[in-house]
Design brief:
The chain is globular. Strand 1 and strand 2 form a beta hairpin. The protein is built from 5 helices and 2 strands. It has 149 residues and is mainly alpha-helical. Helix 1 runs antiparallel to helix 2. It has a two-stranded antiparallel sheet.
Length: 149
């Protein structure tokens, strides 16, 4: 690849990452405008901080390259692409508002799946990538718990 082409690829990556961060910020502003003002002050602040953190984690996740060799890979009976996609999807729905009971149960099963999957990942980058995915799903579950208070 020539210098010009690599420069274009780098610019494309910067543009994609910027778009992801802006999209997460806009999404966060939309969610914030719908927050219920009746939530007590301390819980409300904690809730807002967790929503901010989740939006940031989602943006970071979208900017990170998918681990090489994990497409089509099953670990502990879990398709790694679906594990990744499901985690992001649950996080996105949590940013939108409360989950229904079926989705809450699905998120709980998803976070439990990481207990089997993470120790079985032998690739260093893959383990780091999926630890971030797990943390994103766990934070989404924490936000759901705060909504109950």
């Amino acid at each position: 690849m020539g210098w010009l082409q690599s420069g274009q690829a780098g610019a494309s990556l910067v543009m994609r990452r910027t778009l992801v961060l802006v999209t997460a910020w806009v999404h966060r502003v939309e969610v914030e405008s719908r927050l219920d003002a009746t939530v007590p002050g301390r819980i409300s602040r904690m809730f807002e901080e967790k929503l901010d953190a989740l939006a940031q984690m989602m943006a970071e996740h979208m900017a990170a390259p998918f681990p090489p060799g994990f497409r089509g890979l099953d670990i502990e009976g879990r398709d790694m692409v679906l594990l990744d996609a499901d985690s992001y999807a649950y996080a996105a729905v949590v940013l939108e508002g409360p989950l229904d009971e079926r989705r809450r149960a699905g998120l709980s099963r998803l976070t439990a799946a990481f207990e089997k999957v993470l120790p079985a990942i032998g690739d260093e980058y893959g383990a780091k990538y999926y630890t971030h995915v797990r943390d994103m799903a766990v934070l989404a579950a924490e936000i759901e718990t705060l909504r109950d208070k």
